[in-house]
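User: Can you predict the 3D structure for this chain?
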Amino acid sequence: MGKAFSVEERDDILARLREIGLRLYAQKGVRGISVREVTAQAGIAQGGFYSFYRDKEDFLFDLLDWRVQQKLSAMRADLSKSLSDPMNYLIDGFVREGLRLTHNLVFDQKISGTLELFDRMDASARERILGHYERHFEILFDFWRAQGLLVSANVPLLRALLLSAGVLIVNASRIGEYFPAIYRAHCEGGIRSAVLIERLKV
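Assistant: Here is the predicted structure, written as structure tokens:
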């Protein structure tokens, strides 16, 4: 059984585990990261790790979930920037984040085994991550509506687009030099099919 920590200790250790985990995850991918290395760098015994997580995969799922929340929160920091061209703001954000992920070993299927990890992810964990994206879209669309735009969205199609974009991202190295153009076309086509934005006529 893992050691009992105070609330303050738990908060501090959890932050360290996540920071170290994300760095090692990016450097080594799913297969290369180990509980032993994470806990050694965090300065806790391996047994202490299990006060926070069931196992390595539970830890990796938490890292993905936490990072998605961080990224989406940062994207919402200044929504006023989206008003001049909402559709391209949505497309560019989708594409920019996807291309950024291709530089992270976590998302290289050949090295990291990411799809196998996603396949093992239980339905509640997968739904939680997709739910963060859905809430992000809801906040964005509600903001646009409050600014006088008419917005309608096919949420199931957006969910399918997220999943298919993920499959493309983890196979970017296999696709090669044409990946950015293919990924942009895929995202743009999907978003334009799923989201309709119109300005109210005055």
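The mean pLDDT is 88. The longest strand covers residues 149-153.
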